[in-house]
Amino acid sequence: APAIVWFREDLRLSDNPALHAAVASHRPLILLYIHDEETDGLRHHGGASKWWLDKSLRALAGDIEAAGAQLTLRSGKSNEVLDAVLNVTGADAVFWNRRYDKPERDLDARIKADLTERRIDVTSYNGRLLNEPWAVETNAGGYYKVFTPYWKQARQCINARDTYGRHKTLNGPDVDSESLDDWGLHPTKPDWSTGFDDWTPGEDGALARLKEFLDGPINGYKDNRDRPDLDWSTSGLSPHLRFGEIGPLQIWRAVHAGMEAGNIHEKDGMHFLSEVGWREFSHTLLYYNPDLATENYNDSFQHMPWRTDETALDAWKKGQTGYPMVDAGMRQLWQTGWMHNRVRMIVASFLTKHLLLPWQEGEKWFWDTLVDADPANNSASWQWTAGSGADAAPYFRVFNPISQGTKFDESGDYVRRFCPELKDLPDKYLHAPWEADKATLKKAGITLGETYPKPIVDHSAARQRALDAYDTLKEKR
Ligand code: FAD
């Protein structure tokens, strides 16, 4: 009888353990993707992620077709769709790679219990992480809450097996499939829907990006990774990892091979892998704290006197705060679906500290606008920046958006790219246009408050307000 391979967050044909095991079972395969917006409790993809998913599924369908089989697309409740496909095909086994967000985990557990009772074999695999959350424990038992000891231990636990090559031939019966065009994942409205063309969603795009990064830019990563003004200062692999077009073990093996061959400097390779380690750590935090996207990890933040201010929130979302580094970041996000990590920290700090707005607002906006929006990384990183997370940046460390700009966008190329209205401003004033005298502004064609906003908050006053708010929280502890 045939078997179903249920693709979820693993849209690739190489090093895909569930697919690999299914092929090894020598059965005809039904390669299935379910678009489930009906099961209660699942968080739907945001707009930018849907854009990516659409392209990624097209790429996967093409790769599967080239291998001689078909990607079956169905929408609806996952359990009902599986039942229908099992019935019509007579399949008696299902293979999948595990997920770690609680609603998905619960759904998978329910389906597995139900199918097992009906004598349908369900086998699940790790296709997403170097180590699954429960595989790395402290001496006392339990999970690590601090990154450095976590990663030290996690590195020792990795099962660095050989990666599985790409499956070049696949076969199975043709099954009725819906059409991607009918799913309407590709948004037509926002102006960004054309602007994401820099990306190549899909497994080929992911592997090409890894190769290009490892062939050069990785050497220098440790020094350059905080530079949003440089192309390739980081790998840009995050959306590919998010959708599982590449697995972390493929990255781990390729970086180690490069270091062993002497092509990748040890310090850069290891630093890059430690960032992949932050992804693992974030998944662990999410696994043990299912409400990480909405609830403070650190309970004392329950008492934080966050403000409500729709106007300020809107200015932040639109990149109209009057702080060029913040605005450039928010516009990069809107226009490209991605933002450099250093700038993510700056804009997140600005929202939670300068504007004193709840981090959950930022988490939601990123969820909708990032092509790499990830339940683990996004929640853990927002809480890290806000100070409410595990192993977080201390709340009192308020990023200064001006000095962060002069330090990490020294040339000003980044701000000039995303805030072109400031491009003729001399470097000296680029990160604080309000400090320029009238003649300089005029020469650069800028009228503050008209062509570019005046700062929506004063840096020193906002910083003090944030620290005072934080102090009230300490008193309550
Ligand atoms: P590289 O530097 O090339 O790193 C390689 C990979 O390591 C990344 O692709 C990513 O999977 C992982 N990684 C790197 N940094 C981190 C980190 N700090 N935490 C967890 N994993 C990391 N990352 C997401 O993938 N999805 C998100 O939704 C997300 N939201 C974020 C929100 C905020 C407020 C902040 C401060 C960071 C967020 N990050 C998120 C983490 C980080 O910014 C991105 O992973 C990184 O910018 C992706 O670019 P890259 O692939 O070029 O990274």
Determine the mean pLDDT.
96
Annotation, overall tally of beta strands: 5
State the helix count. 21
Q: What can be said about the biggest beta sheet?
A: 5 strands, parallel
- CATH homology group of the largest domain: DNA Cyclobutane Dipyrimidine Photolyase, subunit A, domain 3
Silhouette: globular
Question: Might you state the CATH topology name of the largest domain?
Answer: DNA Cyclobutane Dipyrimidine Photolyase, subunit A, domain 3
CATH architecture verdict of the largest domain: Orthogonal Bundle
Order of strands across the main sheet = 3-2-1-4-5
* CATH uppermost class of the largest domain: Mainly Alpha
Number of domains: 3
β-strand percent reads 5-15%
SSE ordering: EHEHEHEHEHHHHHHHHHHHHHHHHH
Bound molecules: flavin-adenine dinucleotide
The residue fraction in helices comes out at 40-55%
Structural class, from helix and strand content?
A: mainly alpha
The whole-angstrom Rg is 24 Å
Compute the separation of the termini in Å: 61 Å
Low-confidence stretches: none
EC number: 4.1.99.3
Protein name: Deoxyribodipyrimidine photo-lyase
Domain Photolyase/cryptochrome alpha/beta: 1-130
Catalytic activity: cyclobutadipyrimidine (in DNA) = 2 pyrimidine residues (in DNA)
